[in-house]
């Protein structure tokens, strides 16, 4: 028989605590699991719910791809050129110290309501952790790997593609995981303050009209989506491109 | 003792290398190496022997002098001068086959030829059947074989080896030394080996260069033990004569250093 895994208790525990907490409040303020489940059932039938999820995912996808690609390119360049690295490092340190959310009000003024400011927040959120880790990864590349590739006839471009890129992957994925977490949280927060759509907006607007069950549904949706991305998207990719490091 | 070959392949022409602060690492090294020859370089740590190998490979530019291979000056690394690193420098994200085929893939050879030649190199080092293994699943000796196969695949004219066997146990080391001689004979490669081991240098080499502490060649010894070498030669009196001489050559440096340290008292 398999040994008992205590992780199985996590979800029942949360539900019990939730039920006990909900007993102290009227359902309209803080709904229990049952009411929330009914609301979820209702939302699963509603095109509006999918619309908001879709908008948030669309923003996340575009913002994250822009951030990841630009962070990768700039990180690789900074790894190759010491001068560029020196130029980039103070800027990265400065921007990384500010919460991405703090930019949201300004970005909304500058870029108007809609997708643009939300995508900008995601780019700011995800870019810096990735670029920092790519630079660190570049610094850790072994000189003998570079020399071996040169001796085997690799051109500069081939060196970048066949040595720098794969060798930097494990560090880059550390940045991608961190950046993704920050980006997702920042997106929801930005939608709450300045959006007219998206899951964040769904939560804040439901709160304002006193639809607490929908607020709970929104929160659960955020959690489930984040877990989905982590286990279905990021972990398999990490396993594919970065698993060699743990064994090497 | 007949000299097998005497076509000059590489001229190391008065090479000097210095640190940034002008302390010298290599001091006017002058050496001619013939096609198919096996030359070992021994000396103490920090004597510059690995630096010479790096200059030949094209990783380091000399301050003075130049190196020519078949008349052409060495300016950058290239597949004509294969290199086996002390840390092997295998690519851990690639399989055995992909490590070995690296040089061919860089050269844009056809897929069919890549596979054939890589498998041939893998066979030559006795690793057939391990093509799809991951580098981390291999033993130290097997990794060593992959590193050699990866270098052989581009058919280098010269094989540069920087203390390649130093991390191996004695048995593995000896069997790899024998295989290296066999491969050298099969391919007619010229080999330059940097090593700490006097036994290894004698067993493998046609000539052994002993470095002094100032980055110069203290002595050059011809090893007249005949070729192909048989393993039993390791325990012969001829072998021990060479060993004695090389130990004295290395100790000569030691005495000088000892005296100069003591002279201050």
From TrEMBL, chain B:
This is ABC transporter ATP-binding protein. Residues 10-238 form the ABC transporter domain. Keywords: ATP-binding, Nucleotide-binding, Transport. Pfam families: ABC_tran. Transmembrane segments: none annotated. InterPro entries: AAA+_ATPase, ABC_transporter-like_ATP-bd, ABC_transporter-like_CS, ABC_transporter_ATP-bind, P-loop_NTPase. One of its GO terms (molecular function) is ATP binding. It comes from the Bacteria. SMART domains: AAA. The keyword Nucleotide-binding applies. The keyword ATP-binding applies. It comes from Paenibacillus dokdonensis.
